[in-house]
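Repro:
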Amino acid sequence: MSTDSLVHLVDGSLYVFRAWHSMPDEFHDHDGEPVNAVHGFTRFLCELLERSRAEHIAVAFDASLTTSFRNAIYPAYKANRELPPPQLVRQFALCREIAAALGLTVLNDHQYEADDLIGSALWGLRSHGFRGVIVSADKDFGQLLGEFDEQWDFAKNVRWGASGVFERMGVHPHQVADYLALCGDAVDNIPGVPGIGAKTAAALLAHFGSLDALLDRIDEVAFLRIRGAASCAARLREHAEQALMCRRLTRIALDIAVAETADALSRRSGDAAAMDDLCERIRFGPLTRTRLKALI
């Protein structure tokens, strides 16, 4: 496929959080408020655009930390995470403004997470002949990768396709949601099936193919050549409904209307006046201002 049928889908929140934790707390705007995350995120975005020359791109953010549809399914979802402090919430808003002023599509929703917005965008554009590059280190995105897609861990400059998912997780892309439903995901407070770890989950899916087939043929589990097969079968019987509930949490939504036309995520002309205003408010230095101006 040609490069003009390529869409870059950026996990914006990941890179804002990384900047928040890694940038020194020495950057302040005209009001004296901290903007270290904005500086780090802006540097990342400049470098990404300079390297990729992306013509179709969207940056997705998480605005659903307590209001996601997953919280309605399982109220304890992500309950282990602290909410971002007000200073960071303010910086998130500025990061969205920077992306928009650069002419990028910003995806932000209170019901759906960035993963869902990215998944739906990729699914929508795939029908128009696009392949995707998901810019993130998050393992959950493995379930989205098709034959021609890539995931790009930008910080490490490592890329992998669908086969790389198996190398990293021991399961194929179409099994990732089932895998996480079985072994759980501590980062998102998803319990999975108690006593089933990553290796056992991968072994079960290698044998049965899917969570549904596993639960349909649960009587076979006790006879598998895996450690603790009998107790594993007992746990699956006891927690079958929980496993299915967990899959509703781990499966990325693909049906949000975010990219229904081929030009939906085309990069637009930047807004020079808005960028000048942002540069003044955030007190960017001359190097960052020059980089931003060159990208508009």
